[in-house]
Design the sequence.
């Protein structure tokens, strides 16, 4: 056994206070059904020395191995995912006086940030002896599960809404996963998946329904801190929000770094959603403790078509504890942002990843972001599978 040095100690439920040992397979909290989060024995880590040592380690998310859940390195599954660049975007006409940075995960294996979460979840699943995994997905998570189960020699099944872009369906099948199409949104795909999988001995790696995808997503926050010059931590991170795991993960990363004495403040987290599917933004605006499902959800961004995110309490908590907020954008603004980023900045982004750029003018107008601040736009996926002309046809005409 080649130990990773993981300091994984327990699984905690922030909803009911339950604590579980992490050495057996578990999904949501057995006591209350909410999400479980991994806890590490941070008292055993010299934070300053650990942080200095990162510069001597190979790139990739497993450089943070002490704060990740896999204990035996033999079970780590992946292709060196992580360590994506944090780069200045350059002058942005719609955000005068703001330093705009881009964290671009479009170059990760499988083409999106979902590679981070699935690398951690599938690696830990192998370590716990699981052999069959499934996920309901709007596209990118399904592609990532298919790829990582193929890499690990496990069986994978992906439940996709029928409206999922054909390229995503074909990618899942190419990796060898079984693809099941379901009418409706990811909410209906999730219901169908759990009904069909009941009693089969398979394991659900849906967003926040198991403890370890969020640990992979946590590395987004760890990388932003590591890439920032001393005293130059970004003021805000603007993030496209579907299920919201990335928000929970980044907030968790900042929490752990504060416990290690490595951070005295956190960047503000801003959740961006399309105007016709914005349950998280609505709950933030209304001061609600959880979301209510969005009626008649629609958008050209399949990864943001999540009308009822699971564990929404944790998503809202992540935004609020950093002093952040929410913003909505129209489908027209998403498409315009995709084109602007491509033509003026040379960036290929999906409609989901275009959402932070599209939201910048609104966040400035609302005073959420101010001139003189530095802001990270989190680009979650490549735009290569998407046709701007086809998306143009999908935008609903304005009502007369």
Sequence:
């Amino acid at each position: 056994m080649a130990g990773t040095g993981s300091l994984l100690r327990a699984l905690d439920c922030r909803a009911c206070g339950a604590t579980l040992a992490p050495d057996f397979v578990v999904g949501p909290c057995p006591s209350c059904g909410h999400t479980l989060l991994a806890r590490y024995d941070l008292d055993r880590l010299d934070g300053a020395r650990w942080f200095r040592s990162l510069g001597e380690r190979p790139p990739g998310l497993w450089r943070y191995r002490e704060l990740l859940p896999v204990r035996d390195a033999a079970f780590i599954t992946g292709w060196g995912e992580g360590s994506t660049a944090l780069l200045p975007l350059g002058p942005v006409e719609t955000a005068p006086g703001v330093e705009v940075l881009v964290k671009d995960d479009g170059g990760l294996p499988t083409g999106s940030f979902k590679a981070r979460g699935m690398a951690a979840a599938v690696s830990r699943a192998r370590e716990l002896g699981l052999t069959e995994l499934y996920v309901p997905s709007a596209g990118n998570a399904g592609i990532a599960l298919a790829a990582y189960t193929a890499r690990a020699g496990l069986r994978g099944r992906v439940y996709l809404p029928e409206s999922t872009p054909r390229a995503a369906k074909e990618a899942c099948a190419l990796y060898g996963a079984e693809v099941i199409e379901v009418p409706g949104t990811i909410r209906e795909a999730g219901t169908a998946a759990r009904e069909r999988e009941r009693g089969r001995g398979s394991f659900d790696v849906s967003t926040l329904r198991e403890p370890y995808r969020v640990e992979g997503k946590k590395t987004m926050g760890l990388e932003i801190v590591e890439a920032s010059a001393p005293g130059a931590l970004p003021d805000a991170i603007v993030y496209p929000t579907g299920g919201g795991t990335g928000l929970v993960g980044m907030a968790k990363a900042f929490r752990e770094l504060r416990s290690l004495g490595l951070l005295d403040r956190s960047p503000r987290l801003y959740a961006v959603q399309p105007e016709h599917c914005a349950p998280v933004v609505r709950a933030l605006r209304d001061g609600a403790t959880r979301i209510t499902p969005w009626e008649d959800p629609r958008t050209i961004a399949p990864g943001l078509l999540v009308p009822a995110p699971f564990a929404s309490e944790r998503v809202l908590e992540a935004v609020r504890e950093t002093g952040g907020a929410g913003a909505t954008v129209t489908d027209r603004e998403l498409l315009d942002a995709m084109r602007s980023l491509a033509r003026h900045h040379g960036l290929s982004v999906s409609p989901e990843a275009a959402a932070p750029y599209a939201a910048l003018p609104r966040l400035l107008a609302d005073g959420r972001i101010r001139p003189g601040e530095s802001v990270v736009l989190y680009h979650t996926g490549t735009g290569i599978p998407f046709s701007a002309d086809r998306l143009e046809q999908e935008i609903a005409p304005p009502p007369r």
Notes: The radius of gyration is 20 Å. The CA atoms of residues 56 and 63 lie 9 Å apart. DSSP finds twelve helices and 13 strands in the chain. The chain has two domains: 8-75, 83-400.
